[in-house]
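[SOLVED] Need 3D model of a two-part complex

Original post:
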Amino acid sequence: MLKQNKFVSAISIIGTALAIMMVMVIIVTDQIKTNNIAPEINRNNSFYLKYHIEKSKEEENSYSSGCVTYNVYKNYLSDVKSYDMATLFTPVWSDEKYIIHVNESKIRRFEPVRLCDADYWKVMSFDFVEGRPFNQIEFNDGLNNAVLSERLAKELFGKESALDKTVYIFKQLYKVIGVVKDVSQTFEFAYSEVWAPYTTVPNFEEEGYHAIYVIDDKDKRSLFYEEMRDVERKYNANEDWNLTLQGPYNHRLQMGASYSNVKPEFVLIILKYVFIIAILLVIPAINLSSFSISAVKKRTEEIGIRKAFGARNKSILLQVLYENLFTAIIGGFIGLILSYFTVIWLKEWLFNVTTGDSIPLVAFVSPAVFLYVFLVCVLLNLISSIVPAYKASKMNIVLSLNQK
Amino acid sequence: MSIIKLEGIAKIYRTKEVETLALENVNLEVAKGEFISVMGPSGCGKSTLLNIIGLLDEPTSGKVCIDETETENMKDAELANFRNKTLGFVFQSFHLVNSLNVLDNVELPLLYRKHVKNRTEKAKAVLERVGLSHRMKHFPSQLSGGQCQRVAIARALIGNPKIILADEPTGNLDSKMGAEIIELLHELNNEGTTIVMVTHDEHIAKTTRRIIRFFDGRRIE
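Solution:
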């Protein structure tokens, strides 16, 4: 078939290769978002409390939703004990108040700032180019210490070391005590350009926060959830509002929690994922099937000749399936190579990863993942060629010989 | 002894609108080692008869016995195996596989035979026999009509069939090439191969031992 129908074969191979490449890229993207990768090295053991909803006890339709309030954290979540590590931090906002500048004469700029506690540096694992993170004492004392990304440090201070230099953040002077390697925006909870203790911000009690709880021991988790429900009960007994915590969710589930007042559905998230992958594999399979039918039609005479000289129906069936398998294998390997190059060349666009980033992208295009995708693709390819192969095997010899 | 025996063969082609009687109550016996010509006007059922003898098509009714084997209840695998070992075909329009070279085309029947050694050597030997050993690596599109028909004869020969069925083997050739092909078929017949040939050419038919004639699906002579 490869020789006889070069165009059809090329289309089949390219179709298979592109399908495999797209699925591989989706899987790599998913792995980057869900695996334990520095700085977010505790994803698999983390439970995320991003939002909660407060409903008025007096007015039925009155409610507010949003990030975790400092009041809930300080006065209620402090009762939760069943975890190994926990951190409280703000989402990254590039608000007007986060104007960063070195001195009055320099151009003012907006940069993403994340406010966090001292344990944030334990839950995350940043790669410090120089300096260190702020510690618990500095945090408690509200010392104006800041950590910058390598990119921002270079932009602000050029080739000079940024350590002990001062920058204006929120119109306050901060001392740079550390510089970390740039973090991709793919890391929702680690990404920022500036990190500072939330205790240094006036009215930090009014900020909205996210909390991450790291629980290594699986047995602790049910107790942890029980304590979270206790938090809700205690809050509801003391306050004018009824509290519903959105979570805490595991890492995959929190990815679906994009809105503060919508509960993520695990099944829907998985279904969406499976649906996308299925579409990416099934559509090429349907196309390949029609290509295969047209390829078989072009070979009607050959099939007649082979049957006249002793080929059984089964031999013809197997030949067509084998030829399709062959194109699937070639397409599969081209797809694997394309996956490598796509992941490497398009990493900035696909994953928001900068060229200096140390994410082991290629490692995610693993043989095991490839094997699974490849097997599914081969299977679909075989299914797509069963109908044309069966039709070919059942062709009437005389009619086949008389068709050109 | 008859190597081909047809009894009461009828073939009707049915479509939704129309029924066409291609063969009607045909009886025929061909002795082992015979070379017969089948003649008649276009559409009289000659090729249908050859297809039925070659087990490429089933009769609507009647019995086909080839080499003392009843073929009526044979399944696909048995039919394929029987065709492969007993019958060789030469077609008017050659029916070579264009994507295969001459050697691969000739080897094709042996691909469907188990435990065949020296396939390529055998193919080379039959190509030598038909005078095409110098064209083994050529493709059908690079050959003349006469050369293509020689390749087709080599392909029919390679499995040492007892019967060769030739459907207008000279129909697409000029008279000189046609004569060469008929000479080759006579050689094969002299070596003991039974040949049934459909032809329109009275002159060629007369070179064979027996002529049977058809008209409107019936044997008239």
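Edit: Residues 33-56+73-220 of chain B form a domain with the Rossmann fold fold (CATH 3.40.50.300).
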